Amino acid sequence: MDLALPFDYTVISAQQRDGLAREMINLTQKLHNTQCVIHGDIKPENMLIRRSDFRLIFCDFAESRIRDEDPNRWQGATTINYLAPNRDPNKAPTFVDDLYALGLSIWQLYSGRKPFANLEPDQILELLKQKWTVDLNVITDAPIRNIVARYLSMGGATLEKGYP
């Protein structure tokens, strides 16, 4: 058995962030393109670091589904803080929803903050209806900020509306 450790974004050094962000992207691409799986609840808390090689792995596939699976059969839920503005929380997740959540996870890695952490679920849903997302300006690395912006806009976020 290959043991893994929780992925604690709060203790990641600035030097490690870029590599971990790339690894998060590669892991999501592999899940989508090779395994044809939609995770449905991508967030740092659902990532582990494997002890043998210090690589990221996903955990908690309770909300996942296979790409070709009938979306009407999905009976999961999602973490509201990572919900894409274009997603109905009562409907099955899509690849785009995973990419939006990936963007927020990378934002969290660089900002050190959980998205919308100080808001109640109904407040988050109201912001999402208005296409709000997180404040991208907290990421000072322009290439990373552009990657995050691309993922967030794919999920329906209006990038000019960044919640602090």
Which characteristics define this entry?
single chain, 164 residues, alpha+beta, Transferase(Phosphotransferase), domain 1, three-stranded antiparallel β-sheet, 4 helices, 7 strands, 36% helix, globular
Describe the protein in words.
GO terms for molecular function: ATP binding; protein kinase activity. The protein has 164 residues and is an alpha+beta fold. The chain has one domain (4-156): Transferase(Phosphotransferase) domain 1 (Transferase(Phosphotransferase), domain 1, Orthogonal Bundle). Helix content is 36%, strand content 11%. Strand 3 (47-50) and strand 4 (56-58) form a beta hairpin. Helix 1 packs antiparallel against helix 2 (95-111) and helix 2 (95-111) packs antiparallel against helix 4. The chain is globular and about 40 Å long. The mean pLDDT is 91.
Quick synopsis:
The protein is of the alpha+beta class and 164 residues long. It is 36% helix and 11% strand.
Rg measurement, Å: 15 Å
Quick one: overall form? globular
Low-confidence stretches: none
CATH H-level superfamily: Transferase(Phosphotransferase) domain 1
CATH architecture: Orthogonal Bundle
Spatial order of the strands in the main sheet? 1-3-4
Strand content: 5-15%
**Topology as a string of helices (H) and strands (E):** EHEEEEHHEHE
Number of helices: 4
Look at the helices and sheets and give the structural class: alpha+beta
Remind me, CATH topology?
Transferase(Phosphotransferase), domain 1
